[in-house]
Every structure is written in structure tokens, then in C-alpha cells.
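For consistency, the fold was encoded as C-alpha cells, as this record shows:
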Amino acid sequence: MPLPTALIFDMDGLMLDSEPLYQAAWQAAARELGYDLDAELYLSLVGRSSVEADRAFQQIFGEQFPVEAFNDRWDELWQQLIKTQGVPLQVGLLPLLDWIDQQAIPKAIGTSSNAAEAELCLSLAGIRDRFETLVTVDQVAAGKPAPDIFLAAAAQLQVKPADCLVLEDSNAGVQAAQAAGMAVVMVPDLQTPTAASGAIAQRILPSLKAVLAWLQSF
């Protein structure tokens, strides 16, 4: 199998060990507003857009759920957390990026975060300058599991979708890659791969170190 023409990286959970920070902020904000956002509910929304999350909260907690207040508060708490704790990189990311650059393979980020969140996280993590192409959820019509984010990334890279390989940690992201007509490798973080993800993904690998070893075997 030849190397992919281009690689598209998810951000949270895949490159950045940031999901626990989001989870802490979401749960604290919900608790302050009188709601119990348990780990199972949070995990079910990993990889999806905030619009989908808002819709899910109102379905579960009722139409009275204060979406705007919740989003304002979790963002405040999240910014406090990342500015005090930093945004850790997932193990194996930098060697993988170095190798991809050595092979001159174009790469992009396709994330369910909005532009402000993504720019802040990537800058604090020290890897913003590693990517020229960044597509965020607020730049497209629909977030994952719709294909829009990945299709926009391929278009910016000027590469056909079928020639791209997506690296994802979430089941929604795996579905989005399939919908975009792209190959995908899943590197699970907080979410357990579903049976559907197992059927879609070319590989389910335990780490970015394993992704690098797999790519080097081509």
C-alpha cells in the first residue's frame, strides 16, 4: 500500500490530551447550573459539534436547559484550566509530525472546535506553526459526523478526498471520514470504538507511536 497523498488530523484527543479539560469544564458548568452531566453523556458527545451537544442537552434535560449560560460558563472554566494547566501533547505526536514533514506529505487539521478554541489550544501546545491548513467547525455548514470539515481540508490542500488519510480518536470523526470518502485510522482516546468504527477504520491503533510505525511499514 502506498503512503497517503495527504494526512488530515483531528485535534482534541488525537493530537492534544485536551478532552479531560473539556470534560471537567463541561461538568463543572452543568453542576453550577443544577444539572448532572455524567461521564457517559460527555463521552457520547466527544467529537461532535457544540450545536449537536446543545441539542442533546435540551433533549435530555428539557427545553429549559440554559444553553447560552452553560456555553458561556464552560468556556470561562475551560480557559482557566488550559491557561493554568497547559495543553499536553499526546505521546508520539512530534516524532510523527517530524516524519511526515521529512516525507513532504501535506497535512491539515480538521477539528470540531471553533477557530478561537483551536487557535488558542494549538498555540498553547506549541504546534500551531506545524500546520498551514486548519479547518474548524465554524467554517463549514455541518460538524462531524458530517463530512464537511474533512472535505474542506482536502480542498484547501488541493488533494482528492480519496487520496487523504484521516487520523481520528472519536467515533463521530470516523463516520465523518467515511462520509467524506477518505481512509481513516482510529486512535481511541476517551471513547471506545464502536463496531461501526471497527468496520470503517483501516486500523485501530493504540497510540500515535503505533501510527508512525504503521506508516513507516509502507
User: Anything to note?
Assistant: The domain at 6-17+88-216 is CATH 3.40.50.1000 (Rossmann fold). The two ends are 6 Å apart (CA to CA). Residues 145 and 176 are 4 Å apart (CA to CA).
